[in-house]
Design goal:
The chain is 63% helix and 0% strand. The protein has 197 residues and is an all-alpha fold. Helix 8 runs antiparallel to helix 9.
């Protein structure tokens, strides 16, 4: 009995969805085009028509991961909105940090792929929406506008991102001293602002 393909005519999307699942499960390193085609019930040639090699799949998965992260950021801090006061700006910044750390914790394999060599695809089309990095710049700009922080330069933005990113990565380490619950993430985000000055 022949297995019915799962993609129903949408093979690229099915390939990316399968690879995202593999990244989340931490098994994407073992994934091959032959394995993908077998799981989807199509020939390897069908997959090659859309993805010339395994690296093309990994780049597409990383891009899909950034889109998923942007969706979470949009929930935490709608990009088209503006904080009405300092308290709201601080809350939005903390919600953004919480969304980032939670995404890294819940989708660690995918998150690592996104920030690996496949995460910056020069061939990828420019997204219509802001980049995930732009969200941080927006949050810091609001904090500066209300006098919560003294500056929000590109260097400041990079400092805050590296601190939140490093904190996210350490959550999977056996050396982590505390799990990243929401209150802990928010306190850590405030500590980063204090270090920023």
């Amino acid at each position: 009995m022949t297995r019915k393909p799962r993609h129903h005519g949408r093979l690229p999307e099915a390939v990316i969805a399968l690879a995202i699942d593999a990244a989340r499960a931490g098994s994407i390193d073992q994934m091959s085009i032959r394995d993908v085609s077998r799981r989807l019930g199509v020939s390897p040639a069908a997959v090659y028509r859309h993805f010339p090699d395994r690296e093309a799949i990994l780049r597409a998965v990383a891009q899909a991961g950034f889109n998923l992260l942007a969706d979470q950021f949009e929930t935490a801090l709608p990009y088209g909105s503006t904080a009405p006061d300092a308290a709201a700006a601080l809350e939005r910044y903390q919600a953004l940090a919480q969304a980032y750390v939670s995404f890294a914790r819940d989708h660690y394999g995918l998150w690592r792929l996104m920030f690996g060599p496949y995460g910056r695809d020069p061939q990828a089309p420019k997204l219509a929406r802001p980049s995930t990095y732009d969200w941080l710049g927006k949050a810091l700009g609001e904090l500066k506008a209300f006098g919560v922080i003294g500056s929000a330069t590109a260097e400041d933005q990079y400092f805050v991102w590296t601190a939140v990113h490093g904190f996210s990565d350490l959550q999977t380490s056996p050396a982590a001293t505390q799990s990243a619950n929401d209150a802990y993430i928010r306190r850590h985000a405030i500590m980063i602002l204090r270090a920023l000055g």
